[in-house]
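Assemble and predict.
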Amino acid sequence: MTIKDIFQSMDYGPAPENAGDALAWIIDQGARFGHFINGDWTVPSDDFPSLNPANGETLAKLSQATPDDIDAAVAAARKAQTPWAKLGGHGRARHLYAIARLLQKHARLFAVLETLDNGKPIRESRDIDVPLAQRHFYYHAGMAELMESECPDREALGVCGQIIPWNFPLLMLAWKIAPALAMGNTVVLKPAEQTSLTALLFADICQQAGLPKGVVNIVTGDGTVGEMIVAHEGIDKIAFTGSTEVGRKIRAATAGSGKALTLELGGKSPFIVFEDADIDSAIEGLVDAIWFNQGEVCCAGSRLLVQEGIAERFHRKLKARMANLRLGNPLDKCIDVGAVIDATQLSRVAEMVESCTEGETYRANLEMPAEGHFYPPTLITGLSPSSRLMQEEIFGPVLVSATFRTPAEAVALANNTRYGLAASVWSENINLALGIAPQLVAGVVWINGSNMFDAAAGFGGLRESGYGREGGWEGLAAYTKPKGKAKPLAPVAGFKGKGASEDALDRTAKLYIGGKQARPDGGYSRAIYGRSGNLLGQAPLANRKDLRNAVEAARGAKGWSGMSGHQRAQVLYYIAENLSAREGEFAHRINAMTGGRSGAKEVETSIRRLFAAAAWADKYDGHIHGVPIRGVALAQKEPVGVIAALCPDDAPLLGLVSVMAPAVAMGNRVILAASEPFPLAATDFYQVLETSDVPGGVVNILTGAHKDLAAPMAGHLDIDAVWSFSSTDLSAEIERESAGNLKRTWVNNAMARDWSEDHTRSFLEASTEVKNIWIPYGE
Amino acid sequence: MTTTTLSDTTHQLPQTIEPRNPGMPLDLDWVRRAQANTSAIERRVAALPGRRSVKKDYQAAWLCKAISCIDLTTLSGDDTPGRVTRLCAKARQPVRPDLLAALGMEGLTVGAVCVYHEMVAPAVAALQGSGIPVAAVSTGFPAGLSPFNLRLAEIGASVEAGAEEIDIVISRRHVLTGDWQALYDEMRAFRDACGDAHVKAILATGELGSLRNVARASLVCMMAGADFIKTSTGKESVNATLPVTLVMIRAIRDYFERTGYRIGYKPAGGISKAKDALTYLSLIKEELGHRWLQPDLFRFGASSLLGDIERQLEHHVTGHYSASYRHPIG
């Protein structure tokens, strides 16, 4: 083509990024890699190739880690952890800063290597992945610096096993390693077997930065290596980003191990366009939402919901925009959509689209490369929530679309999913946009935008999109624990006895469900005796149907979550007031059941807990994160939802109140299984609730055997969190059963907690989810 | 009406290719529905230079295209016939002949020459036979606050003097007060006064307060029969920007989808680098499509852009970075 020809055609022509330096780096390393353990490389074993998805060429040969490798990596990390934590915040900050600087100095090398290995457009690796990875290290250098002053009661978890996916290899590494190291942890990280090269280059950087040996260990291999990490007894915490299916397995595999766990899983994030939106900008937002990284993005805006009145025009414009996407060699600077990671993923995407028999499928008529794994940007319109593709994650450049009529219907459709990772809302009406955002079940909401990320704003999901946050102050909880050592918790048993009630008139303790006293479904009760074997009363034995009823009542009491903190505080104060009025009676009851003399003290402390929760109800504020946009990211604290808890056995009233008060203060509805040996304080307590304006369903009280209730609670698909402070060790069972809907769990692992101390802060944290709402502004 | 094909020459007059926009009744529903989300628009234009890039021969060709779309402009109080004649000579031969020969682009000229009314006659004379039209800024340029009858008369005088394109300025106050009817009526009157000359509506976007206003003013001017919409006079403190461009060309796209008429676009002021010109061209290509990459539908209003492009072209031909004194001034 002559210049004159191009002058007429005005084509872009090729604009390839030079891969020479990146390929030279691979060759310098021998094009074969071992693992990076204890600051050194193991001998490569050439087990599997790392392929370039755009052309199928082998980039390097990699090693599959053996159990010995994992042992060595964990041992190195363990040995390095104490000195690393003792180095202090400033010392760690200097290392993290050095890593950030080196990432910046080698920015183009990382970007090109990432594109070679992953198939994503160089535009994205260069302008998004690598700068964000640097940003995470800079940001967390700051967090290391501030840890001692700002988190004085927290300490490192220890050795973290981190397993990351192939879609953002370096960025996910940064999200995992930066906060872990900042807080004094050491890590054993496994990149995905398809995309290990930038992690190995990162290891090279760690050596250059003079990072102490063993602080960062990188092992390569497939899912079986991940399983070894998950199962390894020397690891204190597992952080996983990947599919919901694997996340569920990891939850089950780590159940009862005492390992901390955070999961960042799949999504089917809604992209909601109201009729008053800037439609052209919304369409451009969709390009960033679903055709970013070939749609291989956990938070991809993959489910378009568009208001009926503009749907036809919107789809027409969208199709026109799709025709302008450029697909092809990811190293070309003019490419929007690169290669899908591998043949398996490509056929999975193709199969899902081909299986769709509803709606209308539109594919942009783009030139497809002759080789490599490419899939054309695809739009499927006219689907309904019952369509498979409206529910299941495709993880490819495929957008599905449906319409809605009203804002309420938009919310209903958006939330009609098992996932809850992200959402986009497009409207020029501030009232509408800011009104919709809190109603969406999502960890991140972008208003008039999509796929905005920053180290200062936490990222993570709700429901089956996983738990834990990465980034921001809220992300530090994933890599720290409260200081101090817990003592083992011995089972607490009630007294045995026989005989008759001392009360003049029989009192019937019932369950408390939906604001009403209810007889147990099974029709069984258990006698409760005092120290001298005297009969104190009978407590009903709740079964799974009683639990079901309680969950329905709690689910129905959603108005509580919408009340203001001030209103909830009023109710909590009122509970305290009414409890205070019956102080003597409760003290007597506690003493009679436990055979102790601390009843009065326990009642008094319970009242203090109610006051503390009431105090926090309107003060547990969120943050406004300083993200690098003209706008704000509001880190809003939202109630978890419906929480079921096995209350402490050892403090019959105080334990229940300590669990209940912060949870309801934050707007949750709770189902409380009372102290198993001493349930009668709880059944007296519902009378206090009844007189304190607590709306029905907000607090539900069950009595009975914790071991009978634990599995139904943890397995119930409409409960959002299960906590256990029972002296029966049910931690493993609860964590295992929770995998069903990946509900949040908080279990005691058979460790005691001193209820005379105030744990309100921990309970507030567990009672809330941080939702980051990104609000770009400016007219 | 004669029709030529696009490949015949490197510059065309609009009327030879596209049916002229007759305008349409003012559709206030459409105007008021127009939205422009500033942050999203800024993100789009910020990402674009990273998404599209042209290299080597392609870059040279694109820069030649940019030259063919330049309205070579002088709008100074000290303009004289001599100065304008010199500029017109540059318009005929915007790049050194040896460079054009090396590029295979002999015959390349700019899109038009743009001057004040008093300079129209000397410009027309100097461009005789070149096919390069003369554009006159008009209607009390740049503020547009002279008496309405004088503004109309000014258009007539410039057309009579041989201007084939009239760049009018709108009354910003009509936009700022939301008086779309008044803006429509004014634009209609200007268009009528132009007769066969093509009319470019200068919105003075830097003075309209918001991108939303830019979107709405663009639609009103097109409804009232504008052939081109143009960002600015070059005299405002903020002139052509990429966000404003995106808003205006999206309005053009909507107008085309609705009416079938293609309206031209002219960013003016502040575009002085070859690299910026490439970004503008790629934005036009992405949002409006290839058809708009022709001088009948796209112009740069620029005075110093050409100099930078000349240096880049010499670099392309010789492989060495150039110096400004090696290129004849206009």
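The interface with chain B takes residues 1-8, 10-15, 123, 126-127, 276-282, 284-285, 288, 324, 333-334, 336, 428, 448-449, 629-631, 776-779 of chain A (CB under 8 Å).
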